[in-house]
Amino acid sequence: MLYSAPSFTRPAQCGTLYTSYGTNNMTINAILQARAGAKCELCSAEQALTAFVVPHSPASDDDHSVAICDTCRGQLEQPDTLVVNHWRCLSDSMWSQVPAVQVMAWRQLKALSGKGEVWAQDLLDMMYMEDEAKAWAEAGIADEDDDSVPTVDSNGAVLQEGDSVTLIKDLDVKGAGFTAKRGTLVKGIRLTNNPLHIEGKVNGVQIVLVAAYLKKA
Ligand SMILES: [Zn+2]
């Protein structure tokens, strides 16, 4: 599945913690940071990490996210930029005790094996996963034909038709001449063709809102 390239400007970094908005790209929190131990959970790079919600997950909490570096993220989001040798790192990370990491490793090895990388298939053959993690990993592969990307809010929570959301920042509504204030509740949202946008009524006007500036209510 494809994710659109993050088209945001990253705010100033503060150690390895920073906030950024964009699809599937959320603030890394202390729990994930502690679990990752300041190293990318996939390639062990000691770089700034961001939380990446494992696609096709039953939830978008820490248990279903991995803390990864920009190199891994870039290649996951843009599979056409994949550098095969970078993913040799999976021979270590596939042994992680964290199911989310196992799922990411399994799917990436599967993708590499599909490209004819024999070593990746060898690793897959050795890999051990609990049934639950295996089913989760396979859910991603089964849905591969369906290239619909979920619409997610600023926390990575999946938004559904009819949900209520609140704005997490003031937004100028172009053309309508007002500012939608931070904290405004928008009920009964509608999804659009673009996973980055939803539609909702603010001040009685139906407007398009950027999902990354919303929080599920
Ligand atoms: Zn990495």
From TrEMBL:
Residues 31-77 form the PhnA protein N-terminal proteobacterial domain. InterPro entries: PhnaA_N_proteobac, YjdM_C. PANTHER family: PROTEIN YJDM (PTHR30305:SF3), PROTEIN YJDM-RELATED (PTHR30305). It comes from Aeromonas veronii. This is PhnA domain protein.
